[in-house]
Amino acid sequence: MRQVLIDTSGVSSSLRFNETSFFIEPTELDGHKSSCCTGTHEEVKSTLVPLHNVISAKFETGAVEVQYLVRQGKEQRLKLAMTHGVVKDGDSTRAKEWCEALLLDAYRGLSCSMAQIPSKNLKVLVNPYGGQGNARETYASKVEPIFLAAGYTTHSGHALEIAREIKLGYDALVIVSGDGLIHEVLNGINQHEHREKAFCIPIAPIPTGSGNAMSLNLLGPQDGLDVSAAALNVLKGNRHRISFMSQTIGLLADIDIETEHLRWMGDIRFILGYLRAIIARKSCPVELSMKVVDQDKSRMMDALYAGRAGASPSPSSLPSSPLGDVKKYNNASSSHEEWTRFEKPILWMSAGQGPFLSRTFMQFPVSLADDGLIDVSIQEIISRRNLLRAMDGAEEGRTYWINSNRYFKATAYRARPLAPKGTIVVDGEQVPFEEFQVDVLHKLGTFLSPNPYYAPEFVVRDAQGKSRRTSV
């Protein structure tokens, strides 16, 4: 336990840290109070901060200053905080070394030396019109102070054009918006003169949109909508290569577009849209074909658990039994590879990477960040009553176990609309209603993430909410 003693306006405190935590403790519990600007007094309390949440530590003009993020409020969102005080023993050399040691441990594992902490040069893109329209204010009041506290350099700008011409020296591309702007940025990078190098710049979303699915997938349900936690990820996140988010056609796509005018409601708009869609219960006439790798839900779940445990699960293979409603066929344009066709009437098809489509809907609970596959979920036509029941546990991925939800892992798929009008949504943005094909471009883009896997944990329950046993 390394420590330093400081004095703040007559209040004596001990600062120390170990391998996992940073501690702030009063040295005399009974006799010291701290004063605030109003003149009222509060008892000094001990504070424990995860070392991961420490963002800066410095010694200047005889005083130590440590800035960090702490959880506050009912929702336990992260907030920037600071402790500051004059070193009591007057040993400036020791205090400086203590700050350097704390910072090194706080950024341990990020492949950087003391001289490089912190050193990221960030390009920040803010969408002032996304979600509830408060992205600019949120960035200025909650996100940028965290970057500045860590000593980062930020540059703001516009989306597609900047992504298309972005300089290759940035350490991260920070997207202050929802998922739509990420889609726009990726397409801009795709037009870059040095596309492969530009795709190596990691992307870090700051959730200020409606769905914010990518942030939820990277940081999990607790932190996925917390802009301060997302900013901390920019500081501490490692590079893990994952493909981007989702493509939907049918009822789910209709919900996304038809609730655009309700963006001010946040992700609650999707629940309201779903209830309206249940009443209409429109079918989705579409021809779907896939290069299927697996459709065994228990096996896909076991692969998820093995991946989170650090094991190397054996690659999924086609089931030995027939594919039921999925029929095999060959097509001259498929480069002599075998495709399979799904032939039952459906309400919607959704395919993508990352568990969450929104905070209230974990569509792809067994999605793996780096398996080179795309998860395809197809909802067969069922009654309005069963659609209403499906809302229960949707935020936990419980719909995964519903028999009418046909779930596949694939390397590619095709969708050919059979109706003259309809809706197709890609990464939260509407695209032309026409035939399309999706292939996995494995490890093309890069996101910053604190984990080598998607953060949300899939609680293994069936459609009735009962726990399921897993072999892992």
Task: Provide the residue-averaged pLDDT.
Answer: 81
Percentage of residues in DSSP E strands: 25-35%
Distance between the termini: 37 Å
Major β-sheet, in short?
A: 10 strands, antiparallel
Shape descriptor: elongated
Proportion in helices = 10-25%
Q: Would you identify the regions where 5 or more consecutive residues have pLDDT less than 50?
A: 29-42, 111-116, 313-324, 328-336
Number of strands: 27
Report on the structure:
The chain is α+β, with helices and mostly antiparallel strands and 472 residues long. The protein has 11 helices and 27 strands. The strands form 6 sheets. Strands 15, 16, 17, 18, 19, 22, 23, 24, 25 and 26 form a 10-stranded antiparallel β-sheet that branches. Helix 2 packs parallel to helix 7 and helix 8 (251-258) crosses helix 9 (268-280). The longest helix is centred in the N-terminal third of the chain and has 15 residues, at 92-106. It is elongated, with a radius of gyration of 25 Å. The relative contact order is 0.12. Mean pLDDT is 81; it is low at 29-42, 111-116, 313-324 and 328-336.
